[in-house]
Recover the amino acids of this structure.
């Protein structure tokens, strides 16, 4: 039927099926600013439009409903590329991170300001009640609305209240417009799905309904015969190449324990057949024609079940080692079941698949048992964490195509170079020169996009068919076939003297990695390496065991094990304080790490190799604790006014790392353009965190030029130099430092040329803003230098590279404080106040650093109180939707939510910077558990702290 | 999935279409239920209601004693309408997502098969009746009967008797997140002055059975008596409900919360000065 409606001010007549989803219709018409994060559940709001001026979800409308209506999208707002007050305010307040939901936010706030020019906080909350943002934690939106309100009256109104850091700098430590902000706020084409050419084939995966089964027979002949089906890949015709999907540096500590498709399925949602067809409808029809007979095996769903004697084996595979094969391997392999395939270890990770052990490690300093014996008080507690999912609003998505004989992968990935390496392996060892990975804007990664969970199949199918391929996970696939936090059980043993001095700390950690060993060693290790060094104690130890099971896959998730370790150890320390009759804050203060301390425990906590003891180069924990305690009025009991509701306060100290010293490497390149401006080619993958802006600032500051004079191209394996990827909190520290080093090298080249032009020695020259070299006898502009070098008699275009590696660990620290209201009768917990104080060295982008903190905290308030993947006894996820999984949105933001940057000047980080993002995830669970105890006197030792668990702890429920 | 779409402009045309197309046709208001992913597997013909002018709020209209609410009023329009009783506006706001409230309608909320439909308990507590139309004519049906019988008829109005305006109402929705699934929803109403004897109580609970239900046994125990102490009332409610466990909440939790929330709602109703 023909639908007549007004789209962005212009009358349109569009042919559509009456039941066509309006989201699909608009994207078909080129409106890519409407986006899909929930498959039509109506839960994410990324597809929002204004329908007759009111925000609604276009995924819940059908085409016929548009007849005679007026539709407005964000595309209507930017006039001749000029941003609307709301758009510019959102960017300048730091609320634009990945940008996937930004157009929806813009529309909601335009509508709000249209009906309420000076809205209250409650009205703003209501306006954004339908917009799911996983990045920002929402808090800065209140300032953005105030700024937009002022800019509606005065377009020149400046952003206020963003703190500044680092004396003597122009852009480092100062607010500046995020370099990709305008593009994202305008809703322009930016994401993988926006790049897909017409005629691209669609890849849909047939997934296992069983958690553990062998494929006894698979017959895809009828499906292959279906017109429009291009290719069907099953375990029978897939290459016999083993790999791991973890995007880690090579050689990886994760075992190569899978093929593209296997004859054994190991989780509900595991791959059974990959169907490539000319349309989604054909692919789905083909899937219905594939006949599969399963030999169903008993599923193993917990680590306890996995390690029980006689447990079904998930990988009774033949084991191979690239280096370090243990003695007795041949005899061990005699027990392997050939049907289970192989596992290849790059080096030993102390696995024993014959008892489902995926990896293990133990170590320590001093003598824990002696420390416990010397203690006046010994505490032993066990803490459990459930399976939670990263839920980026943009699910996993990939678009692959051939360009001549080269494979092009448009990816939403954190690890372009690891992706290229893994795909090259799976294509049978083709050279990496045949593959190009272009990281598009990423609509949220959070660790899930550190792993290669769909790109490699699409790439393989493009390679063998020559056809362009598009695949996009459904929200359910995001839950069951992407990445989640490792489920952990952590037994903590603490010993202390009566005065609170810790005499021993030990963590005994059992992790459940699920069906494959992605990050199976390093995530659980990180639970220890980011928890133990927060305390100064001579006797520390840990034991980690990670087990295979048949739950949905786990892997990297922002924090990378540290949230679990922090929950366990910080809560145990608070419990110890109760035993000692001490204020938990005083106990933390007594034992916490300090600047200059030597962290010997890190010697035992290398990532698959021997670690290195590190001296704490900077530590802002002292002021974090001091300011946080003052802000929350620590020690002052507060009353709710409701006899059913008790208020309590909690605190936790936290740390993370700044990349992986000795393992990671980053590179950048900078070129001077003809007018003396620059293009910076940065390897680092910006996930929306502002890394491109960090890189641009490094160059602009070093080269004494304006931020606008630096164009950044990043994370394209053809165009930009190698970078390890965006993980391990390495962005600013490694990739930023590479940009700084490239700019510093450029500075030297500029000075050399200027010296020739001015007839002075380069050592006596100085760069001065803007873009000028000042000598004793005169000056020369960069434009003149460019003209000189790029002319027929010049030395050629100035270009420089920068590389960064280090053996130094610059550790970010923080203290999180919160107060909660606990309803004793209903078990409800409301976070009233949350103060997150963090030392990230010099904050390079202060507004974006604050946004990283808010976002990390809200995610983990979610893990602490609401989120949980619920599996049934057969390993099926019962709540694989955003609504049923219960992601926190703006209504869950604490009433008082304050992030504060406590600057230190780290001697090793670029301009004194350390990391800021992942650490933000480590405080919520222990601080909230601590506060709940303070309120109602019970300890919650399993997250999430649901009403049911609280009522059981209180004894209200049996 | 909608295969055909009709937008009648008269009620008569809509009813005739429905009579002609039978079970293969469904009335479509905002579409937040029928267009959602969970409903797309079903193929049907849509009869859109937005051309029928059924979105008005009228007092004493058509000889009705009380308030007449159009079924295509969106939840946001209900909230924004001063004439709508505060309790009903509060219940509409329990749908925390404004984008949804701009699409979802009063009639759609009542017709959808959700065990915890946002507006059902409060409308039970306000003694709402529905006007229903089909090819055989118009009839008036109490909301509880409508939910039980599920007639294949069009809701043309929601009627709130004038007496309902005198009811004091206490409401409570229990969910872990604002936009998450509702575990329990309770509405309690009564007549009479605050702190006096409870008159004509209505106790409606969603989340303890397949649909919202009135706890008539509890209502009888309350009728004409002073407000009982909380523990006693909670005990009555525990006896009156038999929820089933599900993977997200035990039966014990639901029973406990039903008791607590009813007690809270009655206390709120007794104190309310709407």
């Amino acid at each position: 039927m023909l639908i007549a409606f007004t789209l962005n001010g212009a009358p349109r007549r569009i042919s559509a099926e009456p039941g066509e989803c309006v989201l699909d219709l608009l994207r078909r018409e080129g409106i890519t600013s409407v986006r899909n994060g929930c498959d039509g559940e109506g839960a994410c709001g990324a597809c929002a439009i204004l329908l007759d001026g009111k925000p609604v979800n276009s995924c819940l409308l059908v085409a016929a409903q548009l007849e005679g209506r007026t539709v407005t999208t964000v595309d209507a707002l930017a006039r001749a590329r000029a941003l609307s007050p709301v758009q510019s305010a959102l960017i300048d307040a730091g609320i634009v991170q990945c940008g996937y939901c930004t157009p929806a936010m813009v529309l909601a706030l335009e509508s709000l300001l249209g009906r309420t020019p000076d809205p209250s906080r409650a009205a703003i909350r209501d306006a954004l009640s339908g917009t799911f943002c996983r990045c920002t934690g929402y808090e800065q939106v209140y300032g953005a609305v105030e700024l937009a309100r002022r800019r509606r009256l005065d377009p020149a109104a400046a952003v206020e209240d963003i703190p500044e850091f680092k004396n003597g700098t122009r852009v480092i430590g100062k607010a500046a417009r995020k370099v990709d902000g305008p593009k994202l706020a305008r809703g322009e084409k930016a994401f993988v799905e926006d790049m897909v050419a017409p005629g691209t084939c669609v890849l849909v995966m047939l997934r296992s309904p069983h958690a553990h089964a062998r494929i006894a027979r698979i017959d895809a002949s009828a499906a292959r015969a279906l017109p429009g089906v291009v290719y069907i890949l099953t375990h029978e015709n897939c290459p016999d190449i083993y790999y791991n999907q973890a995007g880690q540096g090579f050689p990886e500590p994760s075992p190569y324990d899978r093929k593209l498709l296997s004859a054994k399925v190991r989780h509900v949602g595991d791959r059974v057949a990959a169907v490539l067809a000319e349309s989604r409808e054909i692919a789905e029809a083909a899937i219905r024609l594939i006949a599969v007979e399963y030999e169903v095996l008993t599923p193993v769903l917990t680590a306890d079940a996995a390690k029980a004697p006689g447990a079904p084996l998930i990988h009774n595979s033949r084991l191979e080692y690239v280096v370090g094969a243990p003695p007795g391997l041949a005899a061990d392999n005699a027990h392997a079941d050939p049907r289970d395939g192989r596992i290849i270890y790059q080096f030993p990770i102390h696995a024993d698949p014959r008892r489902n052990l995926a990896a293990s490690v133990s170590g320590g300093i001093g003598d824990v048992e002696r420390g416990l014996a010397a203690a006046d008080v010994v505490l032993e507690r066990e803490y459990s964490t459930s399976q939670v999912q990263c839920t980026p609003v943009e699910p996993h998505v990939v678009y692959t195509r051939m360009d001549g004989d080269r494979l092009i992968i448009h990816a939403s990935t954190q690890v372009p170079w690891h992706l290229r390496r893994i795909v090259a392996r799976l294509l049978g060892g083709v050279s990496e020169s045949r593959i190009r990975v272009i990281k598009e804007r990423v609509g949220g990664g959070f660790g899930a996009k550190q792993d290669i969970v769909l790109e490699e199949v699409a790439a393989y199918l493009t390679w063998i068919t020559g056809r362009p391929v598009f695949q996009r996970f459904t929200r359910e696939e995001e839950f069951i076939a992407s990445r989640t936090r490792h489920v952990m059980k952590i037994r903590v043993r603490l010993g202390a003297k009566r005065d609170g001095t810790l005499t021993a700390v030990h963590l005994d950690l059992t992790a459940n990695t699920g069906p494959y060993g992605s990050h199976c060693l390093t995530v659980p290790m990180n639970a220890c390496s980011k928890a133990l060094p927060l305390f100064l104690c001579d006797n520390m130890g840990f034991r980690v065991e990670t087990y295979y099971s048949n739950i949905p896959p786990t892997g990297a998730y922002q924090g990378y094990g540290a949230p679990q370790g922090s929950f366990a150890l910080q809560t145990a320390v608070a419990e110890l304080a109760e035993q000692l009759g001490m204020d938990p804050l005083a106990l933390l203060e007594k034992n916490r790490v300090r600047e200059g301390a030597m962290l010997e425990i890190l010697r035992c906590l290398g990532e698959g190799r021997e670690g290195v003891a590190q001296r704490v180069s900077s530590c802002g924990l002292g002021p974090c604790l001091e300011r946080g305690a003052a802000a929350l009025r620590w020690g002052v009991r507060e009353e709710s006014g409701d006899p059913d509701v008790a208020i309590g306060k909690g605190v936790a100290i936290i740390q993370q790392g700044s990349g992986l010293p000795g393992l990671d490497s980053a590179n950048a390149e900078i070129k001077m353009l003809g007018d003396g401006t620059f293009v910076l080619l940065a390897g680092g993958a910006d996930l929306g965190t502002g890394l491109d802006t960090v890189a641009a600032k490094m160059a602009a500051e070093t080269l004494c030029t304006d931020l606008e004079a630096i164009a950044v191209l990043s994370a394209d394996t053809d165009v930009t130099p190698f970078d390890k990827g965006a993980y391990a909190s390495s962005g600013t520290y490694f990739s930023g430092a590479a940009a700084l080093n490239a700019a510093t090298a450029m500075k030297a080249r500029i000075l050399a040329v200027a010296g020739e032009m001015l007839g002075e020695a380069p050592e006596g020259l100085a760069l001065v803003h803007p873009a000028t070299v000042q000598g004793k006898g005169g000056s020369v502009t960069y434009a003149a230098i460019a003209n000189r070098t790029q002319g027929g008699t010049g030395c050629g275009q100035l270009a420089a590279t920068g590389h960064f590696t280090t053996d130094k660990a610059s550790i970010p620290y923080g203290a999180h404080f919160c107060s909660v209201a606990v309803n004793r009768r209903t078990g409800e917990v409301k976070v009233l106040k949350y103060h997150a104080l963090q030392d990230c060295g010099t904050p390079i982008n202060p507004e974006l650093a604050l946004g990283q903190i808010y976002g990390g905290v809200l995610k983990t308030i979610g893990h602490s109180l609401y989120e949980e993947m619920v599996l049934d006894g057969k390993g099926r996820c019962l709540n694989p939707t955003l609504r049923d999984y219960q992601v926190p949105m703006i209504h869950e933001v604490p009433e008082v939510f304050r992030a504060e940057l406590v600057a230190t000047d780290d001697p090793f980080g670029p301009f004194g910077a350390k990391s800021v993002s992942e650490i933000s995830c480590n405080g919520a669970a222990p601080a909230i558990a601590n506060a709940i105890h303070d309120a109602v006197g019970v300890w919650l030792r399993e997250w999430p702290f649901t009403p049911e668990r609280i009522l059981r702890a209180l004894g209200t429920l049996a | 999935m909608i295969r055909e779409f009709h937008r009648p402009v008269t009620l008569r045309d809509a009813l005739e279409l429905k009579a002609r197309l039978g079970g293969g046709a469904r009335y479509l208001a905002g579409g937040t239920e029928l267009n959602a992913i969970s409903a797309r597997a079903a193929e049907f013909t849509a009869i859109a209601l937005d051309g029928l002018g059924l979105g008005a709020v009228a007092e004493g209209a058509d000889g009705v004693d009380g308030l007449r609410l159009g079924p295509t009023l969106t939840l946001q329009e209900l909230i924004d309408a001063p004439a709508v009783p505060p309790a009903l506006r509060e219940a509409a706001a329990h749908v925390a997502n404004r984008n949804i409230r701009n699409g979802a309608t009063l009639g759609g909320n009542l017709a959808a098969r959700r065990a915890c439909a946002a507006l059902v308990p409060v409308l039970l507590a306000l003694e709402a009746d529905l006007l229903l139309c089909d090819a055989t004519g118009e009839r008036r049906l109490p909301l509880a009967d409508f939910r039980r019988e599920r007639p294949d008829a069009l809701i043309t109005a929601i009627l709130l008797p004038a007496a309902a305006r005198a009811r004091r109402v206490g409401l409570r929705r229990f969910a872990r997140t604002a936009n998450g699934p509702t575990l329990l929803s309770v509405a309690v109403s009564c007549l009479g002055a605050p702190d006096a004897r409870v008159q004509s109580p209505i106790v409606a609970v969603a989340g303890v059975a397949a649909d919202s239900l009135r706890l008539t046994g509890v209502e009888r125990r309350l009728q004409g008596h002073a407000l009982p102490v909380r523990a006693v009332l909670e005990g009555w409610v525990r006896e009156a409900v038999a929820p089933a466990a599900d993977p997200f909440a035990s039966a014990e939790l639901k029973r406990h919360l039903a008791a607590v929330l009813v007690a809270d709602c009655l206390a709120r109703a007794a104190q309310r000065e709407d």
Summary: Chain A has a mean pLDDT of 97. Chain A touches chain B through 54 residues (CB under 8 Å). The radius of gyration of chain A is 28 Å. The CA atoms of residues 864 and 925 of chain A lie 5 Å apart.
